[in-house]
Amino acid sequence: MDIIHDNDADLSVLNGKTVAVIGYGAQGRAQALCMRDSGVNVIIGVRPGKSFDAATQDGFQVMTVAEASAAADIIHILLPDENHGAVYENEIKPNLAAGKTLCCSHGFAYVFKTIVPPADVDVIMVAPKGPGTEVRRVFEEGFGCPGLIAVWQNPSGNARNVALGMAKAEGLTRGGVLECTMQQETYEDLFGEQNVLCGGLVDLMKYGFETLIEAGYPAEMAYFECVHEAKLIVDIIYNKGIQAMNGVISNTAEFGEYYNGPQILGPEVKDKMKESLKRIESGEFARVWLAEAAAGAPNLKAKREALGEHPVEIVGAKIRSLFERK
Q: What is the rounded (10 degree) CA torsion for 56, 170, 73, 39?
């Protein structure tokens, strides 16, 4: 895949256009502020409450989702996945017109058809590959978070250029942008979150912590070894790669990686990951999650509460307090 940089994107494609950012959470705030700093006319569509107040304090013109959708040329929806469908049907769809553009930062709603857009509007994705706080921080430092763009519908013939213009306005082309399909982004994003970054890594940390304390080792030491030090390792990998990380740890640790690692996470784990990917690609995961959300997310809330009571969180809070500056 080719990496797209600043010289490949034209910010002027957004001249005279109004971008409505729908939602003002971490991503909404970061992307809206970056685009505004780049000279784009940005308005915010959000319900009354903390987000409405925060956007107002940041100096944006804030209105209801319906009003913002009616006023905008580009409607950039940055809401939780499970909310896209209802908000679109009730507040955005009635205010769509031919020639407008729908935009998102994750293709879930389009791939799994909670949003089915009319054929006469462009549909694009502009997706920073980092949390909102990071997107904003690196933009203010004069660089940019890497990102992805995709085109779902292109009746105007100009959708790709608009996506690149927005990516440039958010600083993403400074860091480098890859062009993909929405299916690729959606499936890979869900897979990575569930199997490696969140699900896999968190479970690995918990199992390691539990194994040590069940064997009689101090919980505080178990936390240091299985949770705390993960950041130090990941930071090196993030900056320089896996081989460079192996170059700064001890020979004993590196040999243990090759010796014991495959005995813990063997080929059977990869087989289970393949099954997980099939559940994502088939839409099974999306159906289960959307049904859970529609029911008020009882299982999610129960799991969230149980995690807060797990010893790894209780001990972790104690350990982290040691590093707080007084």
A: 70
Q: Against a cut of 0.85, is the pTM above it? A: yes
Tell me, yes or no, if 106 is annotated catalytic.
Answer: yes
Residue 83, token pair as written in the block? 């909310």
* Residue appearing with tokens 């809330």: 301
- E strand segments, the chain: 3-4, 18-22, 41-45, 61-63, 74-77, 101-104, 122-128, 147-153, 177-179
Those residues with Cβ within 8 angstroms of residue 171's Cβ, 6 or more apart along the chain or in another chain: 34, 38, 135, 138, 139, 143, 144, 145
**266 phi, psi to nearest 5 deg:** -90, -170
pLDDT, tens only, 37-77: 999 999 999 999 999 999 999 999 999 999 999 999 999 99
Q: Counting Cβ atoms within 10 Å, is residue 7 exposed (0-12), middle (13-18) or buried (19+)?
A: exposed
User: What is the rounded CA–CA span in Å between residue 170 and residue 27?
Assistant: 11
- Catalytic option among 76, 106, 228, 310: 106
Which residue is listed with tokens 């799994």? Answer: 112
